[in-house]
Amino acid sequence: MIAYKFLREDGAGLFTSFAWPAPGEWVEAPAEECRSGVHACRVGDLPFWVARNLWEVELDGEVYEGRTKVVATRGRLVRRIEQWDEEARDDYVAMCAERAHELAASAGPGWDAVIEPSRPEGPALLGFIAARIAEELDGPEAYYGERASQAGWLVDRLGLRA
Fold it and tell me: Measuring CA to CA, which of 69, 75, 116, 142 is 20 to 30 A from 100?
């Protein structure tokens, strides 16, 4: 299965600090969501985990699908997604901020004051803010609908495959 993984600049996992081996080398671990295994994103999951460096990964073995991630017993890095660069990240932040302002116009006072000061924090926070405003307006499924729109932007901009 082809999936995606955000890593730190040094090639380590964001939460585990696991140092990934060179592309093509398999890693293996028992799969237990949030505890063990190779955690990765389907394209629709990307906005939930967005970070500095994006890699295409190949998953193998047992693969478990969660709401916002997949966990497998085996995985390997395939290639870095070079299109996810500083310009793309800045454009994503701008898109999320614009969408958040659009939603905030209907949500009432308070949200607009949060959006612009959050820009320096980057794409993860701005995507979350837009989704939270959508949720406030239209309920929990609107949150996931907004995240799906963000994922669509990423797929189109980066030329990703599902």
Answer: 69
Domain final position from 57, 80, 103:
80
Domain of residue 14 covers: 2-80
Q: Give 140: exposed, middle or buried? Use CB within 10 Å, 0-12, 13-18, 19+.
A: exposed
How many CA atoms, within 13 angstroms, populate the side-chain half-sphere of residue 100? 26
Q: What is the mean pLDDT of residues 134-152?
A: 97
Q: Are 29 and 62 in contact (CB under 8 A)?
A: no
> How far apart (Å, rounded) are the C-alpha atoms in residues 60 and 72?
6
- Residue 144: count of CB within 10 angstroms of its CB: 16
Q: pLDDT value at position 132?
A: 97
Number of domains present in the structure of the chain: 2
String of DSSP letters for 130-157: HHHHHHHHH-HHHHHHHHHHHHHHHHHH
Phi, psi of 13 (to 5 degrees): -65, 145
In terms of domains, do 72 and 90 share one?
Answer: no
Q: What is the mean pLDDT of residues 131-142?
A: 96
